[in-house]
Write a structure and sequence with these properties.
Oligomer: single chain
Structural class: alpha+beta
Order of helices and strands: EHEEHHEH
Number of strands: 4
Strand content: 15-25%
CATH architecture: 2-Layer Sandwich
Helix content: 40-55%
Distance between the termini: 36 Å
Number of domains: 1
Radius of gyration: 16 Å
Number of helices: 4
Largest sheet: 4 strands, antiparallel
Strand order of the largest sheet: 2-3-1-4
């Protein structure tokens, strides 16, 4: 079971690059599926948000072990993909995440942080 993840979020497409943004969104399904087939990630979720009043268009949540996610962060193909996303979408963000079994680690760290406040 995955213990780590990457949350890759994007805002609205960059004005004038809407079609390129859509093409890359479609292409990304194949890219991430390939990573999954190669065993480089466990799985991924692709989420496109309905229109709303904040500028968040959607996100991918990539699931994997600590080792898989650490390796992905330094993978040249992944870095190139991320650069391409930044060229067609505004407000791109990437955040490490605890998932599944990793939640216990997050809770443990939070408890330790709370203990320091009690001192």
């Amino acid at each position: 079971m995955a213990e780590a993840g990457l949350w890759v979020a994007w805002g609205v497409p960059t004005r004038g690059r809407e079609r390129k943004a859509l093409a890359l969104l479609i292409e990304t399904q194949d890219f991430l599926s390939g990573l999954q087939e190669q065993g480089r990630i466990e799985r991924f979720d692709r989420v496109v948000l309905k229109p709303q009043n904040i500028e968040l268009g959607g996100f991918f949540l990539v699931h994997g072990s600590d080792e898989q996610i650490d390796a992905l962060r330094r993978d040249e193909d992944f870095e190139l993909w991320l650069q391409r996303v930044q060229l067609v979408a505004d407000q791109v963000g990437i955040v490490d995440a605890w998932l599944g079994d990793g939640i216990a680690e997050a809770v443990g760290l939070y408890e330790k942080a709370l203990e320091t406040l009690d001192e």
